[in-house]
Structure formats: structure tokens, C-alpha cells
Amino acid sequence: MSSQLFDHTTDQLTAAHQQYQAGQVAEAEALYHQVLEQHPEQIAALTWLALIADQAGRPEESVGYYDRLLTVQPSAEAHSNLGTLLCRLGRIQEAIAHQQQAVVLKPNQPETQYNLGVILNQAGQVEEAIAQYRQVLTLEPNYGAAHNNLAMALYKQGKVEEAIAHYQQAVTLNPSHVNAHNGLGVALFRQGLVEQAIEHYERAIALQPDSFSAYNNLGTALQRQGKLEEAAGYYRQALELKPDYASAHDNLGTVLQEQGQVDEAIVYYRRALALDPTLANAYNNLGSALQAQGKLEEAIASCLKAIQLQPDHADAHNNYASGLVDQGKFETAIEHYRQAIHYSLDHANAHLNLGIVLLLLGDLKQGFEEYHWRWQSRQCSSLRYPNALWDGSDLQGKVILLTAEQGYGDTIQFARYASLVAQRGGHVVIACQKPLLRLLNTIPGIDRCVDRENVDVQTNVHAPLLDLPLLLGTTLENIPGDVPYLSPASDFKLPVVDRSLNASDHQGTPGAHPPFKVGIVWAANPDSSTSGRRSCALDQFLALLELPGVALYSLQKNPSEADLVRLAAQATVQDLHTQLHDFADTAAAIAQLDLVISVDTAVAHLAGALGKPVWTLLANVADWRWLRDRDNTPWYPTMRLFRQEQDGDWDGVFERVAEALRSVVGQQAEGAGEVGGAEGAEEVPILPAPQPASPSDSPFQLKTPSPHTPHPTPHTPSPLPPNGFNRLQVCRHGTFLYNRNDLYIGRSLELYGEWSEGEVALFQPLIRAGDVVVEVGANIGTHTVFFAKAVGAQGSVLAIEPQRIVYQTLCANLALNSLTNVHGYAIALGEAPGFAQIPALDYHQLNNYGGVSLSQHDRSQKAAGEQAVGERVQIATLDSFALPQCRLLKIDVEGMELAALKGATETIQRCQPILYLENDRQDKAAALIQYLVELGYELYWHCPPIYNPNNFLQNPQNVFGNTISVNMLGLLPGHRLAIEGLERVTVAKAIV
């Protein structure tokens, strides 16, 4: 009887399989069910039913059959199939568990190992996936799919060379592997091997003509080669194959933008985002296009969205920073340029842009180091001369070629270095733009000037002119500013302007004082990307004709047709543009003028290099060479700067110009003689006044501060072990390591990217470059990093933190932010030397680690035989440091503030620092206040809320409610600070 049953079951299974093979899946499924009704543990029936349910789109039912199957017979195949199915269902951890079980059952089967690698990679466990693929290749070195997947995983990790090697293995083993050819092309492209990348993209297309991703990638490679029309064609082919291909829409937009079709580019960027709202690259490109249109706020928001979607998007950080620069937010821009470089070490544009901002801020040394990256950037043309670059070494017996690389103004400005190079003993040849040849031949010490388009001289080494400041160690203090270093090399004669034709000029009569001759330039080169913001209207200058005694000479190169009409209508303006054939002629004209007033153009540089008085009119955010917040420049001692106070505000600039010019002309009319003043006369203020140093005791207004406008950056995924308590976060003032279990500082950094920013806003106007700041109770350094950056390289910060684990985090944060001007001490400060006890803490548990109080550990405890709990820490006094100076003393030591102050009395009396202390203990507040009053301090409450609605991460959720930080600001009369908006301390404030 049993034999008959067996035969019947076998017949049913055979029939079911035949039905399945014939495409009659429903009938096959019914037969398998019949088998299960008779034999619920029949393995073949369970296996086939699991497969059929999965194929029919009933994955959960399939999972049930696999579960039953594994109960009956836990085979490697069943575990592997179930793992693959669970992976598709998004149940990744279960999938991994089953696939790992399959590997345990069949450790030497490459397929099982390979499937586990696939699931681990999908789970984001790239390192583990890589190890798995390597294991597959150990078992089967010719497993092409494993080579391909390993290459993809390695590429994700940035190990491009190794990825290329495995892609090459994959295509060798299977020359028809489309994805391997495509992936290999991507990796080769990343390495700059564009031609080789193109070969593999074309091979992928030949193998699979509908491979839309290969068409898209081929377009990217051709775009890199500058073949924009061909690139656009391939992007369009990709879109024909897949109209909803967001990346191809995005890439086509970039081609159109490069072709100057910004409006059309924006259309494609927006289409890409409509198709894929998570496409960070499209947000970044949209931001770039919007910035090109002058829509700065929208551009910044778009780049920020890209960063939020993809925190490691280097281009987005770079473009976001560039937008911030246009807003004048330089420090935050620097942070994002550095983020771009962090994520892409060889990001030439980010290095270059960082260099420009550092130069703008006056850090010439580091700025020019970063600026050297321009040669790797697409913003600059490549070096055109084959001989070796000069490294600053001795030039005896050598010929050096100094090459003009950028615009006329750059060449004029940096040609000053030619004489210094000549002092190194070599023969100096300058290759410059043809219109500068006659002029630059007047530089002392050079042998000759040649046309840079036709260099026919033998040289040993060469140096681009803008490399010379770096090679010669230029700083703000040693800029070679001696003028003139150029001389007129032309016999051009300035025509006379008849001021009597100007009805508004009451001095245009016989015997009147000669007119004050002013050369003017109102427009930058229209081909320059910054021309719009650097140029103003001719009418702004023509309004100066209302001033009596002024004659205008137009030095403008190639004025527009409309401007020519306006000039022709002004008989009292001499238009010289047709008479000035090169810069030597222009120099001769300038030499005969009393003053040059120009927007930021080569003429301004020329006047400065000739030592002629020149007023340069600048945009609100001007070029780096003009630095910030000053009306003079170390590059040209005879130049005075007039800056816009707001973007586009030329009216305000010309009001100040007119006022200054009226004063100058008035003094001349009163007999002061030539510009510079006759003997015994007061000097005419045509030149810039020396930049005065701000006296340290000058009063200024200290208002109740509000935290500054945020520049959001998303949470950066921490590369730290997931089971640890430490995390990393990019924050407002730097990158910070923090304990995720810290209920206050850690939580605030994680959610908001800052801690108690209201305190920082108070400190900002108090701290100056070169100051010494002492922070007692520095915790993990959230404010220490701010202090270190505020005092700069010439200042220093003492950071005191007694908790060993917290102190270690403080040191990590100083290292993460590359701060070398902070001295950290793992001690406590008190009234007298001794020891204290830190309570035993479990840093894996939730706690307020900034609210830990220390207990004094003295001899009486030892005598009583008490057992110390926790860690022993040394107590020192601040007076023992014998500080020579201290601008700010900040103390936050959880009730030990008075003891710390008493141990700092001599320091306070000698250095007279500003004090900032926590005072939130009602039982200790009165004594603390009384002690400070006796020291002569005037005290003010400063109680900012912990939550800042304008926080760095733009997080609207307030988890701290109305919690405030209760602190006191202590000032001495000698600090000369006027206080607005802070309540005077009279009695201890109630603790909230």
C-alpha cells in the first residue's frame, strides 16, 4: 500500500512539473496543493509552491512556504532563496540572517557567498559586502559577477584603482557584460581617463543599444572634453530611451548652461527634480544656474537642499559656499569650502575658491597656497609653457620667463614682482598681452617683454605672475608696495577741455584756476563674469560735471554705442578711447591728469602702479585683492577705495565721491596748488588716509545680541562605530565629536548643530584677534572652538575641563578643527591646590554630562576612612598660571564658581578681564555676587534660551522648551562698554 502511495505522489509531482513547464501554472499549483494535503511536509511541493507564489506576486505567501520548508529540511538552497525574497521585501536583517545560515550550511559554495554579498551591499554594509565578494573570488577566481559587484562596492568607497582592476577582470571573463563595461567607464572617467572611459561606454552601447545609462555616461565624458553638442545629443538619446530619466535631464541642463542657455538649463533641472525630488545633483546645478541669474537667495536654498539630501556632495558645498561669499558670509563659506575638500580632496574649484576667500580676508600665505589649485581647475586655462616651473631657488646664470596668465589688471598688479625676481640673479623676460608690451618694458631690472602669444626666447624656468607672491613669501606686512614701478612710455599729449562750455561752472572765465583733470572709467570688460557687479552707469560720472572746476577725461576702453552718444553730447568731456592705442598711451594720459576715478578695472591698477592718485569704486563684495572693510590698499599707496554699503548701491558711492572731490577741488581753488599741497599748506585729502589701529580703550555699544543668521548644514552620517556613544556632527563653528547620550550639549549639537548660541552672540563683539581667553569648565569645546577662531593665530585659549572622558572629547574637537592656539588642562580650578572627586559615570547612559559637580576630597575624608567613589582629579588655582593677560574669563563649574574666582583673585586684579559666569544656584548666588561687587565689577544678567529658532540646522522642533542658561556678565569701568538690553544684577535671580 505504501509503495502505491509513493508512486501516486511521484506521479502527481511529475504531472505538476510538466504542467508548469507547459506554462499551465495554475494547474501545476493545484496539483502541488493536492500533494501537500496528503503529505504536508513534502519538500518538492513546498519548494515549487514557494517559487510559484513568488512569481505570481504573492511574496508573503512564498515566505510562508519557505518557513515550512525550513522546518522540514533546513537546506542552504531554501535559506538562500528565502534570504533573496526577504531582501526584495525590504526585510534586510532577516534576509542577511537566512543568507548567513545558507553560508554556514554550504561554506564552499560560491553562489551562496555571492548572494550574501549582494544583500549586505543592499543593506549599506559595504565593507562586509566587499569581504564577502573577496571570499567568493577565493573559492572561484573566475566568478565574473563577483568581480563586477566587488568593483562597484570598491568604487563606492573611493578605491577607484582597485575597482578598475576588478571591472577589467569582469569584462575579460565576460566581454559581453554590459554593466561591467559601463561601470568600468565610470571608474576610468573618475580617474581622468576620459578616452578610455568613452571606449567602454561605446562598447556597452554596442552590446545593448537601449542602455540609456551608457548613453548618459557617454554624454558626460564628451562634455568633459568640451564636445558640448555631441554630449547633448547623447543625453537626448538617453531621454528618448527613458523619458523619465532624471539624471539625463539634469546633465542636459549642464550642457545648456555651459552654452550660455541658462533659462533652458533651469527648465531641465526642474524636470529632473520633478521626476526625482531626491536628486541632489540637480538641486546643486539648479543653484548654480540661479546664481548665474543673480537669484542669490534661491540659489543658496537650492544648494543647501542638495547638501541636505547628500551631505557628502562636494560640488554642492562648493556652490553653497560661493553663494555665501556673495552675501559676505565669509567664515561660513570657508567651512563649506573645507567640507567640499574633505569629501573630495582634489576638488580644484573648492581649493581655488577657498584660496580666494582667504586672500580676501588677508591670509595671503595660505590663500596663495590654495590659489595655486587654479591650474587644476576648469576656471583657468592650463599652463602653456613647457619648461620647468620655478621653485624660488637661485637664478644665477638662468633665464626666467614670467608669464601673464589672466587679465590686464592682474598683469599690471603682479608685474611689480619682476624686479624682485631679477634680484635673484637671473635674466627676466616677461610674456604678456600685446597691449602691455611697451608699458612693462619700463619695469626696472627686466631684460625684455615679449608677446605671450608668440614667445620666441629660450628660457630655463618659468613662473606665472600670480605664483610669485607665494614663491616670495608675501604677507600683508611685506607686500612690495613701492610705487611707481611703471613709467609712461608714450609721448601722448592730453587734449584740453574747455570748462567755459559748462554753464554750471562759474570758474570757466579768463584767469580762473586751471580745471581739475579727472580720468574716468565706468565699465569693466563685458566678457568678464563679474562685469555686471563691477560696472556702473556713465551718468553717475557725468553728474560730477556739476562740480565747478572739474574736467572729465574718458579712459573707457570700447564704450558702448549708447555711451558714445552720451559722451558726444557732453562738450566738456574728452573721450580718449580712439586716441589710446595701448596701455603705454593710457599711462601717458594718466600722468597728465590730477586724479583717476575708476571702477575695478585695469586702469585703476595702472594709475596705482604709476603712483598717481586714484579712487577705485568697488562693489559691496569686491575682488579679493581689495580685502575687506578698509578704504586703502597695501598694494597701491596712492589708491583710495570707495565701497558700496549694499549690493548695487552706486548712488551712495557717488555721493561720497562727489563730496570728496568737492573738497579736493575746493582746496585747489583756494590756492593749495597741485595735489599733495603747496609748501606750508594743508595736504589735499586726495590720497587714502592711513588705516588707524583701533585703540583698545575705545568705547563701543554692546547690545543684547541675537544668534546670527544660520547657514544650515545637514547632519553628517557618523563614520564612528554604531554601538558607541560618540557621534560626529558638522556644526556652526566646526566639526564636533559629542556623546549622543548627553541630554543637553550632545542633544543640542545633534538636533541644532550648535550649543547655547545666545552666549556666543554676546561673546562676538567682546573678543578680538590676539586676545587671551580662559574657559573654566570647557566641556567638549563647543565654545572653545569659537573662542580659538575668534582670537586667531596670535591669540590663545586656556581650556580647563576636569572630567577625563569629557576632556578627551574636548581634545578630539580641537584636533578635528585643526586648532593649535588652545592649551587644554585636565584639572579643576579652585581656591587652593588639592584634589577633588569626579563621580563615577556610565557614559553609555543618558545624563547631563555638563552638569556634573565635583566633591572636594580632603584629609578629613581620608581620616574618616571613607572610600572614594569615581576618579580623583587635581585642583589648581588660576593664579598659579601667572597669565600675562586675559581678555575674558568664562567660568561654568556647577556651583564651584566662587572657589574658582578666589583662586584667580590676583589674576583678575592684574589682568582685569571681562567675566562671564554661570550663576544658577540659589544657595550660592548671593555670595558670588557679593564677591564680584567687592572686586569692583558691575554685573548684568544674561539668560539666553537654550533653543535658538535660527539654529544652524534650521530645526523648528524645540526640545528644550523654555529652559534658559542663567549667567552673569561682569564688567569693569575700564572696559568702556555701553550695555543695552541686559538687566543689572542687584539680587540673585530665581532659578528657572
UniProtKB/TrEMBL annotation:
Superkingdom, natural source: Bacteria
TPR repeats: 76-109, 110-143, 144-177, 178-211, 212-245, 246-279, 280-313, 314-347
Pfam families attached to this UniProt entry: Glyco_transf_9 (PF01075), Methyltransf_21 (PF05050), TPR_1 (PF00515), TPR_11 (PF13414), TPR_12 (PF13424), TPR_16 (PF13432)
Keyword Glycoprotein: no
Signal peptide bounds: none
Residue span(s) of domain Methyltransferase FkbM: 775-939
Keywords, ordered alphabetically: Glycosyltransferase, TPR repeat, Transferase
Bias (Pro residues): 707-722
Region (Disordered): 685-724
Pathway(s) annotated for this protein in UniProt: Protein modification; protein glycosylation
One annotated GO molecular function: glycosyltransferase activity
SUPFAM superfamilies named among the record's database cross-references: S-adenosyl-L-methionine-dependent methyltransferases (SSF53335), TPR-like (SSF48452), UDP-Glycosyltransferase/glycogen phosphorylase (SSF53756)
Keyword presence, Nucleus: no
Protein's UniProt name: Methyltransferase FkbM domain-containing protein
Gene source species: Stenomitos frigidus ULC18
